[in-house]
Predict the structure.
Amino acid sequence: MRIKASLFLVLLFSVVSFAADLPLLYADAEAIWLKRRDSSEYQTYAVEFAQFNNHFHLDEKGGCYQISPEPVDLMLVITHSKGEKFAVIERAISSVE
């Protein structure tokens, strides 16, 4: 079985994040990701997230990605407040409805 999903992480690091400042559209999240994907900070986090995702098979849960006739790309909008130990997934945005 082939999973037709791609997952991209959009890391937004800020002291305080406001919901109004977070991207709502896939294109906006993708633009942020394109700017940050080559940073060492992003690369480290992406490797760790992929290991976690693969271990728990998160991209296979429920089989909803198989419903779409085209590949499904997801952007996870993640914030990490200064001084906090963990980051928070604020929003998940799909390339298809």
The beta strands are 5-13, 72-80, 88-94. The first helix runs from residue 26 to 36. The first strand starts at residue 5 and ends at 13. The radius of gyration is 14 Å.
